[in-house]
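We give its fold:
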Amino acid sequence: MMEFIYLSAFGVAAFMAAIFAALAVAGATHYTKGKHTGWLQYYFYVVLFYMSVTTIFSYRELTASTADFATAAPLAQSAITVWTSRLVSVFLVISSLERLFSVWLSHEKRTPTAAVLAIAFILLWLTSVASPAFLGRHPYATHDNLYPLLIGWAAIQFSARECSAALFSARNGTLLFILLGYLFLPFRPGLVLETGYTQGYIAGLPRFVGLAPHAVALGLLVQVALLLVWHHPYRNVLLNRAAWLLCLTTLFLAQSKTAWISFVLSAAVMAAYRNGNAMRKRVMDPTRPQLGIALIGAAITGALLLTAAFFYADAASSIMEYLDSAQGSQLMTLTGRDKIWAITLSEFHANPLFGYGAQLFSEDYRLIIGMPFATHGHNQLMDSLGRSGLVGTIPLVAYFILLTVLSIKYAQASRGLSLALYLVLAFRCVSEVPLAITTNTQEFLAHLALLIVLVGAAHAQRRSAVVKPVRTATPLWALGQARA
């Protein structure tokens, strides 16, 4: 009898929740009618706030021996964290559906780029998330996997104004998230600082993790913040310099070598698209040849030094000694990721069509293989092969190619931002999974930022398209004057 009452109560609650959701979406759509903007543009504020609450109300203690285990294990959730998660989920679902219905009801025309991106994004979700969840060797589905589909699809429908507002919220939200981590240094250093870190280049320097799940994830957010501050600087000069100082300091203290390299590459792209013409004119200026001569001289000197070091030093033995060292071994195996890749490939061979399923590298799976720190395949292609098989990997490759083409196409319109963000994600695909769209993580935030930049650049390019002048007939009086 009690079981029947419980089931009835759950059924009534689910029914009422469905009615509430429908009414909320309808009300939100009616409220934003004619405004051309919704609430999803504040996505970055909301999700970063939830990430902060999740970490702050956990019992995380980061040391050299527990950092990997602490970041791999699910954080203990307090009542505040649980209710924050529920409220954030409700907001994201309502705001995403409101944007989709508003665009559909208003018959607003979107750019061809938005249409292509929407189709590719939905196909990626169906093949890399839905397919392994139901057709994998170990089926498992959860409602959390549905949120990225709604959020990404709705964000691709953004207007030009919403794209700009969303990027501002991404810039401000990431900066606040980074700054909040420093506020806990005096009284909860174990929450934000990994002590005893031994893999850095400065002995004894702790690794700053902040409120991110890992220093590598913090490095990704810092890169996004730096690029957005560069693209949308603050009007106040002191505030803008403070933002740069905060981000560069955090990027250094996070001690993520991948983040350092990818930021250098993306920064070079941003500088080339923003100052390329001026730099080219300055270098090629015949009236002031000093800079060009200095650059050529520096390049020749560097080449000669490298040649001398290779031929006159025992380069081969030095290289072998480095590879035999602890840091060299980490470089060759990408910090032990070769073992994770081998396990991932074995799961792919076991089911090459649909893969292992969504639970690959879940908590139970990690305990079975004896790698509690391996939360995913640590390579976008490898993870997709093991998790979703060929059905998920082939659309992923096509989606990656599409992002490549669009990022290059709109690099000029976005003043280098699209290509810079793309390089950050592409470089990260080597050791992480930035294109995974299963949950709201730091990876998905950066992925979503790139999509918004592409959509916004498409809007900007369409507005700035030059209309060719219509050729008119020459007046007879003008012809007469010409003949005379």
User: Anything to note?
Assistant: Residues 2-31 form the longest helix (30 residues). The beta strands are 193-194, 207-208. Residues 4-26, 315-333, 466-484 have pLDDT under 50 and may be disordered.
